[in-house]
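To whoever is on call:

I kicked off a structure prediction for a single chain this morning and the downstream step that reads the tokens threw a length-mismatch warning. I double-checked the sequence; it's 311 residues and nothing unusual in it as far as I can see. Pasting both halves so you can look.
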Amino acid sequence: MRPRQRYVHVWMTLSGEGIEVNSIGIDTTNNAVIVGLKVATEEDEARLTSEFGQSLTFRQQNPAADDTCTSVAACWPPKGGFEITASQSLGTHCTSGWIVKRTDQSATRQILTAGHCIFAGGGGGAPWFHGASSGTSIGDGQSNTWVGSGSHDADVGLVGIVTTKVPPIRNQFIWGLSGGPLVSSVTQQFTHDLQWVGDGVCRFGITSFRDCRLITMEDVARRSCYLGTCKWIDRTWEVSIDAQGGDSGGPVYFNYGAAPYIANGTHVHSDDGPYDPGPNGRGWYTPVDLGRANYLAVSGITYNICLTSAC
């Protein structure tokens, strides 16, 4: 039998062909690989059998979902797209972007969000919660790039996840709502050089929820002000999607209406003025590979977005 890693590696390729594989497991008693497909068609089964041989057994299976996921404020364990709230005295509400793995700290997983959220929430060491500020504790604010009035940098920050609360599936995010949150897994990412004007992207936030429109400008430097501190946010991508308070930090992603879901970046700010839900609205996000910005880099902080469940 081929190594399990072989099946997992090809999983992503098959998703691009429209074959949505939601689980892979080994049945040691029968020397078989059990493959869970969202839609177990005869054509898809034949395609997989021709690739891997006769040792596969198929079953229809949807993606894993959390039993407690009833709203963006009640969707434990940590994942992208759920509500994060600073301590009671500050009450800052933002959206988590992606679960990331710190590469400068062994086995440390954290939440990527907007830097101004960490700044407003009390900076490094301030506690963060899921849902209300009296909700489930996540961990403490870590470093962020919202430093120095008038400075130039990205707008990203990190929230630590205490070891006992690291999610078992680390690449999940909320991508939409239909009664309750729709949770799926991100398995790929587009670096900034693969994100072009005219491309369609989606953004999810805890206030405006899911919006999908077009990239309208690349590599934008924009002056942004928050709580009396103004700075230039460099290297953002502009989209025709406005946002509201609480949406900051949310995941920006690409998809064809189904898996695979591809991470584009993190929503950081929108137009100053009344919320415009139409195509004339404007928002900006930091691409995934540009969030590891000057301040974090100088501080020796490096990370990668989790693209596998065991990241």
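Update from on-call: the warning came from a stale cache, not from the record. Cleared it. Sanity check on the structure: Residues 1-8 have pLDDT under 50 and may be disordered.
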